[in-house]
Amino acid sequence: FYRNNGIWSEGQRITNPIIPTSSQFGADIELQNSTLIISDTLSYYDFALPYTEYKINGNIFIYKLVDDVWTYTQNLISPNKVLDAQFGYSISFENDLLLIGEPGPEDQLTELGKAYLYLFNHDTELWEAKQTLEFPDLVNPDENPHFGTQVLLQDGMMFILSSDNPLQDNRTSNVSFINGLVTQFREVDSEWVYND
To answer: What are phi and psi of 126, to 5 degrees?
Structure first.
């Protein structure tokens, strides 16, 4: 939508360029200057890819505003081949850094959630993988903490939410507590590390 003289009018319609009927396109949206980033957490199979790579567990679609038209420029997919990993459940970007949350499938202890950090390359004008962040090795959780449910890059700081906090011990057999845990990371020698 565009605002003109205080009136909002419909402008360009943007749909998933790969699966136009995807029900999860727009799971998260981020805008910074002339860059628009839209996530789609839908998992599907792309049988045109080799067998080891055909599980697509979410997409990030990147658009640039060119002559007042949002133009599709790049697609990022999860390197994780576990179905329903929910890549793109949350996104945040600041300047040349893009952080993508992937909280993982429900009830699967082999996947505790991840967050992927990308760096913008000004020479190629593409986002490139820089680092994978995982749930800190603080405890052996008895369920998926969903690390990456929400992510935030702001003022040079990074925060990642686990919607279920495995550090809580106040669970009983008949009451289910859902207590979130926000983990801060800091940059040390160009790598982001858990801020303990």
So the answer is: -130, 155
**How crowded is residue 54: how many other Cβ atoms within 10 Å of its Cβ?**
13
Find tokens 């390197």 and name the residue.
79
pLDDT tens for residues 13-27? 998 888 877 778 999
Q: Is the pLDDT of residue 162 over 70?
A: yes
Which is higher by pLDDT, 56 or 27?
27
What torsion do the CA atoms of 140, 146, 150, 152 make, to the nearest 10 degrees? 30
How many other C-beta atoms lie within 10 A of the C-beta of residue 28? 19
- Give the pair of three-digit tokens for residue 138: 């603080």
Which residues, including other chains, have CB under 8 Å from residue 15's CB and lie 6 or more apart? 25
Cα–Cα dist 88/121, whole Å: 20
Instruction: Report the b/e string of 132-144 with b at 16+ CB within 10 A.
Output: ebebbeeeebeeb
Over residues 23-39, the mean pLDDT reads: 93
The whole-angstrom separation of Cα 140 and Cα 20 is 40
DSSP class of residue 168 equals -
Name all contacts of 63-71 with Cβ < 8 Å and 24+ positions apart: 63/14, 63/35, 63/36, 63/37, 63/38, 64/34, 64/35, 64/36, 65/34, 65/35, 65/36, 69/12, 70/12, 70/14, 70/36
